[in-house]
Every structure is written in structure tokens, then in C-alpha cells.
Design brief:
alpha+beta, 7 helices, eight-stranded mixed beta sheet, D-Maltodextrin-Binding Protein, domain 2, binds D-MYO-inositol-1-phosphate, binds calcium ion, 268 residues, Fructose-1,6-Bisphosphatase, Chain A, domain 1
Length: 268
């Protein structure tokens, strides 16, 4: 696993340098669906990561956001790659975006690297071996009350098409906490929960490449990662609740209590 981590870190750093070379110099920004942007930086970053992974692990599979499944897709080992997590932020030069590389074994996340090239912060973790920020150990916060917490969430690109758009949950927690941030990079949100800058995170509508790496970071930093109702986390469900152990229970209870917002739908 340590060799896997070294390779993932190398790939993340190379891809991070690619992203920084494109920052503020994008020639075209396309939309995959309303609000879901993709740029040449996403594509070149992804190709950079795939080249490194394929060279070192020709017998592993890869699931990458822009190119889908490649390599040995029947392998127990599957890399989940988000070459640019936070494309909207990146396109606006808002400094919250990462390269996220997770490794699944039999669909279970066991290794994660989240690299923020703007701040040169590399978050890494291997199952049962702890979590690190620039190779220094990290842990989740010790905040015990929601009233003293700072949470983070996000809104999926289908938010205009579904009443299950997280607006009610956002209002609910905004009332109960010191604040709720909307970071715009799911992997960075998870990395910040892992290192205690944020106390908890929930979101729906996520893809495996958004969160595979971050899940390992939070768990290895001592946090809990589950479904909204506290049941076991399922990578393919798109839903995640991650927090320190104390706040996690309270967030499960509050998520069960959220009442629908009385706003017209569809939202225009
Ligand atoms: C998005 C970000 C965002 C989350 C979206 C993701 P992308 O990833 O992680 O925080 O709210 O659901 O799709 O499109 O920037 O790679
Ligand atoms: Ca993403
Ligand atoms: Ca992406």
C-alpha cells in the first residue's frame, strides 16, 4: 500500500502542477450539463494521472471522471480519479480545488490522496495507517456541540431538477451551528473535516471519484463516515455524512428532523 500511496502522490502533484499552469489561462470552458463545467485543465490533468497509474499498475482498473473506466476493469483494485475537483471554483480562480485520487479494493475505499495545488497541501491516508497533511499526522476536531460547530455541504448539479436539492438541510443546519460553508470541492471539504478545520460534512448527488479519497482521510483521522441515517456508507449511493464521533450522532438526528422548505418548485 505504501508504494501505491507514493505513486498516487506523484500523480497528484504532477496533475496539480498541470492545473496551476492553466489557472487564469483557460481558452474554453464547456458545460456537460447546466452548471457542470469542464475545461482543458480537467482533461490534461486526468491524462497526466492516468499515464502515471497505467505505467505503475497496468493490472489495475481506473474509474476517472472525464474518461470513465479504463485498464483492467475486472481487477479488485480500482482507482477513482477526479482530476479537478472544484471545476467551478477553478474556472473563477477561486482557491478551492484539488486533485483527488482514491483506491478501492473490492469497491471499498482503502487509500486516498487529496492535493490542493494552490496551497501546496497534500492530504493522504491508508486504511489503518492514519491520515496526514504534508506528511504530518492529522485528526478530526474535538467539537462536541453543533452550536459550536462549523459545517460544510454542497449542492449537486441537478439541484434545479429535484426537490431533493439540500436547500432545507442547509437552512436547518445554518440555524443550529456557527455556520455552514459551501466549499465547492467535495474532496477538499472531506480533507478539512479530517484535519479539524471543519467539524462535519454532508452532501448528496456525489460520484465515487468526488469522495473515495476523502472518505479514507476522515476515517483515518478518527472521524465517522456513514449514510445520512447512520447506516453503513455506500460509495455508489452518492450520499455521505462525515463528522467527528460526537457530532456525527447529532447530525444523524438533525438530518432525520429536517422539514421540507415551503418554496415553489421547480426553482427558477
Ligand atoms: C463537484 C464538487 C462540488 C460538489 C459537486 C461535485 P467537480 O465536483 O465536488 O463540491 O458539490 O457535487 O460534482 O464537478 O468540480 O469535479
Ligand atoms: Ca468532483
Ligand atoms: Ca472533476
Amino acid at each position: 500500500m505504501e508504494r501505491f500511496l507514493d505513486v498516487a502522490c506523484e500523480a497528484a502533484r504532477l496533475a496539480g502542477a498541470v492545473l496551476m499552469s492553466y489557472l487564469g489561462k483557460l481558452e474554453s470552458i464547456d458545460e456537460k450539463s447546466p452548471g457542470n463545467l469542464v475545461t482543458e485543465a480537467d482533461k490534461v490533468s486526468e491524462q497526466t494521472i492516468l499515464t502515471v497509474l497505467q505505467r505503475h499498475f497496468p493490472d489495475h482498473g481506473i474509474l476517472a471522471e472525464e474518461s470513465g473506466v479504463s485498464g483492467a476493469s475486472e481487477s479488485r483494485y480500482l482507482w477513482a480519479v477526479d482530476p479537478l475537483d472544484g471545476t467551478t471554483n477553478f474556472a473563477h480562480r477561486y482557491p478551492a480545488f484539488t486533485v483527488s485520487i482514491g483506491l478501492l479494493v473490492d469497491r471499498v475505499p482503502v487509500l486516498g490522496v487529496v492535493y490542493d495545488p494552490w496551497r501546496d497541501e497534500l492530504f493522504s491516508a491508508i486504511q489503518n495507517m492514519g491520515a496526514f497533511r504534508n506528511y504530518q499526522p492529522i485528526q478530526v476536531s474535538g467539537t462536541t456541540e453543533l452550536a459550536r460547530s462549523l459545517l460544510v455541504t454542497g449542492f449537486a448539479y441537478d439541484r434545479r431538477e429535484t426537490p431533493d436539492n439540500n436547500y432545507a438541510e442547509f437552512c436547518h443546519f445554518t440555524h443550529l451551528t456557527q455556520g455552514v460553508r459551501r466549499g465547492g470541492s467535495a474532496s477538499l471539504d472531506l480533507a478539512y473535516v479530517a484535519c479539524g478545520r471543519l467539524d462535519g460534512y454532508w452532501e448528496r448527488g456525489l460520484a465515487p471519484w468526488d469522495i473515495a479519497a476523502g472518505v479514507v482521510l476522515v476515517r483515518e483521522a478518527g472521524g465517522l463516515v456513514t449514510a445520512y441515517d447512520g447506516s453503513p456508507f455506500k460509495l455508489d449511493s452518492g450520499r455521505i455524512l462525515a463528522a467527528n464521533g460526537q457530532l456525527h450522532r447529532q447530525m444523524v438526528d438533525e438530518l432525520a428532523r429536517v422539514s421540507p422548505l415551503n418554496i415553489p418548485f421547480p426553482v427558477r
